[in-house]
Prior knowledge:
This protein is mainly alpha-helical. The protein contains 4 helices and no strands. It starts with a helix and ends with a helix.
Amino acid sequence: MNIDTNALLALPAADKLHLVELIWENLGESSEAIPLPKWAEQEALRRRDEMLSDPKLGSSHEATWAKIEKRNG
């Protein structure tokens, strides 16, 4: 891969965001497996274990959406 990262970093923020959106959409359309870093897997397992040990730490699906809708009110 031959990308001029200095040129990318010099772009205005709006252009960088547009590139991120294009890349994100492309990743979503791809059937290629994306490797999960070990740290991300470990963090997901840690959070799962934390929730299983004390379910009061989290919110239900409905409560979460209610908070979002209230905030966007």
